[in-house]
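Protein in question kept underneath.
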Amino acid sequence: MTIYLAGKISGDPEYRAKFEDAAQMLRGMGFQVLNPAELPQGWKPKDYMRVCLPMLLAADCATFLPDWTDSRGARIERALAKYCGVPILEWDEDELGRFEAEDLLDG
């Protein structure tokens, strides 16, 4: 099962480490992770969105890091996920740890 990982990137100098930690946690749960923080640096925000939105739509579900509300791009991604019916797994490390990728197929 593939999960799209979203959160604040612009203006966060530690975003790569933050996203990598989250991606490793999700991979440990059995997800394949689409991680926008692995894209090349130096693009304009609109160019990232041109790549990230199809990644989101290709995923089986999405999760949003706690700072997602501070990101214009992540707010757009969340609205698109809701509009297109991409299931959202809320990011709560205590709760998230109880899920297995297969559980989402049943829910």
